[in-house]
Amino acid sequence: MLSKFKKHLEEQFSKTLTRKILLAVSGGVDSVVLAHLCRQAGLDIALAHCNFNLRGEESEGDESFVLELADALETEIFIEGFETEAYAAGKKISIQMAARELRYNWFRELRETLQFDYIFTAHHANDNLETVLINLIRGTGLEGLTGIPDVNDCVIRPLLPFSREEIEKYARGQELQWREDSSNASTKYFRNKVRLEVIPTLLEMNPQLLESFAKTRSHLQQSSQLIEDYVSVIFPKVAKQEEYGYSFKVKLLQALPSTKAVMYELFKSFGFTEWEDVHGLLESQPGKIVYSKTHRLIRGREDLLLTVVSPLEDKIYTIKEDEEVVMLPMGTFQFEPAEELEKSDASVIFLDRDKLQFPLTVRKWQQGDYFYPFGMKGKKKISKFFKDEKLSLPQKENCWLLCSGQEIVWVINYRADARFAVEDSTQEILRLSYTP
Amino acid sequence: MLSKFKKHLEEQFSKTLTRKILLAVSGGVDSVVLAHLCRQAGLDIALAHCNFNLRGEESEGDESFVLELADALETEIFIEGFETEAYAAGKKISIQMAARELRYNWFRELRETLQFDYIFTAHHANDNLETVLINLIRGTGLEGLTGIPDVNDCVIRPLLPFSREEIEKYARGQELQWREDSSNASTKYFRNKVRLEVIPTLLEMNPQLLESFAKTRSHLQQSSQLIEDYVSVIFPKVAKQEEYGYSFKVKLLQALPSTKAVMYELFKSFGFTEWEDVHGLLESQPGKIVYSKTHRLIRGREDLLLTVVSPLEDKIYTIKEDEEVVMLPMGTFQFEPAEELEKSDASVIFLDRDKLQFPLTVRKWQQGDYFYPFGMKGKKKISKFFKDEKLSLPQKENCWLLCSGQEIVWVINYRADARFAVEDSTQEILRLSYTP
């Protein structure tokens, strides 16, 4: 098994051979075998063990066991205890989900602070088949049927080609010690049912089930790859990069041979899940929006507009008196004294210094905001101004206001306010330029 | 159920509503329900029943039953008896495979002779889930996981969205009669095991299993469609139509992002199954060939050459004396008397009529063939001639010889033989032209 393991590493993960690896170890046979194999293959590993404090003395026993294991393997070990039940209750998620979140968060934290290159976990072929069957039973797609990925970001699962049987045989052959996990079967209802009832029946029908499954998985991974390739051909054809994100021409999307399926592939990486709604945007009125956790897709006149849901939105930034260059998240402001008005464009305005009330503020617009557009008589609602200027929703949303007290000085990059304009009586002219 | 059935037909198979349909009926509940539903939906159906003579009296009982059914539904019925066991033994295939072949062959025959537009079969959602699980257990790919197709050429399965439970409930509700199939459980080992052991366990885990599966299937069908779309984008980029089939530039195939997966998709419709060999052609020496049942893929110098495995190859065609226009499978020959030699190209030669010995023959070349190339001194092996002319393997294979007795008159479309050339002494000049 060691030589098969080494060969697999060399073929698939040769870059890991000389790197620093954090190995997730529960104390169970899978992770113990993985630790031994890595050590024998000469990899630079450290162990990481989570104590979820879910099984009292047994959890403590696991912890002592992995300490001894680290000792025997002469590797570093990191151990962290978690209040898993409290965390699960606080976040209203299952114990399993909580343990999973806590584990991966801590691993990632360890990895960043201590500069590990990769995290290894001991998932094997049976885990993978179980996952795929669970996905199939619950309803899934191509991705769900390819199961646990061999590589996911910095997490690598080098035991995926090995069966539980192979792993246990190796452990017995090498006379390794490990801990049996007696965790409450009811929390693992689905997986245990698949493991103990479904898979044995399937194995009676095909004793080579795991080998067949490995081939199936490889075929599905190739199919998946082809779809990825196809989408990377289509993306630049239908999408255009914009200041606010991307726009997608509705007509081009509709002209594709399998519009709905392509839209699923195009938008899934932006976190969208409501596929009927996403697809429905093609036929809906301008202004309709579908949200994902991180993005929003807006129906424009002839486009779908994709923008990040901005975390900046409620913030108000201030600009103090006498600052010359002010760098804020949306862009840079530069104040300079000027002798006279020059020709300007949308990114430069000239102000009467004495009319400004410092500190100035920069904020997003709100319903009800109004200003006195320079070059016009009287006041106008910002919303009306945007409408007349035919701004798209993301353009509106990305628009910032420069304010003096409650008054708007500049709809940044669009129009100055007449109240702060330079007049014959102006003593001091301020030139203000903005770069996004 | 009738309204759901009508809706499904209208949405998916509206073209069938006014056509002539042949409905495969075993006498089991599925096909009986399908027949009733079709009749009530006002479709123009006739029944077709196969008696496989595998269950003695029971088979006879089925036959009488479907006769009565046709009577009650006032539809035409076709019944055919088969010697299934003898057929299976003769072809060395399983009884199930034999029944399947006999059934579909007969249906297609009936369809063609009696001008039916479609064949309906009564496969339902449970059949489909069983098929997918069997495929998964045996090892499969994306296609195997999408299961039984709704439409396959002229065969349509309009009950696929319905569960066995729905169908039986409808049958009981309408007080329909049907026949229970007691066919030998051992020949249906796999399917019965999946139906009676696997699926019940899965249903305990997810009572909505069939609905989830329908969604999974629709996702996989979309993935499958995307791959088809992608391949239809790639095909014209890497393939060039040739007289003998297609050529594929090796460099272009190698430059694709997922060469192996694309090659699988490109060549599977030509019947290839030996994927390692097909992919291996990219790296192999010119001349290497991989065969499918219908095609062959040949490694050329810079291309892969795809040709049909020709059924013409061993045939010898004859051309009688005094025929002016002779149409043969490979092309048309036209004989005309000529006064003098004209300028000619590869498709026209001039012969000394008196040197020919009729009937002439047209055949493929064989190892050992030689001729006296016009314009050269002495004789040359055909194989050497081809090599010197740098012909590709499919070009060689598609090359025909015109012979007079044992002597070669013309390597058609390439070179005439000097022995039959027009001389000063020629009495009668024959102009022979060839159009592929």
From TrEMBL, chains A, B:
GO cellular component terms given for this protein: cytoplasm
Which InterPro entries would you find in this protein's record?
Answer: Lysidine-tRNA-synth_C, Rossmann-like_a/b/a_fold, TilS/TtcA_N, tRNA_Ile_lys_synt, tRNA_Ile_lys_synt_N
Q: What is its EC number?
A: 6.3.4.19
Tell me which domain of life the UniProt entry assigns to the organism this sequence originates from.
Bacteria
Binding-site residues for ATP, renumbered to this chain: S26, G27, G28, V29, D30, S31
**Record CDD domains:** TilS_N (cd01992)
Which reaction equations make up its catalytic activity? cytidine(34) in tRNA(Ile2) + L-lysine + ATP = lysidine(34) in tRNA(Ile2) + AMP + diphosphate + H(+)
Notes concerning its domains: The N-terminal region contains the highly conserved SGGXDS motif, predicted to be a P-loop motif involved in ATP binding.
Q: What is this protein called?
A: tRNA(Ile)-lysidine synthase
Source organism per UniProt? Salinimicrobium profundisediminis
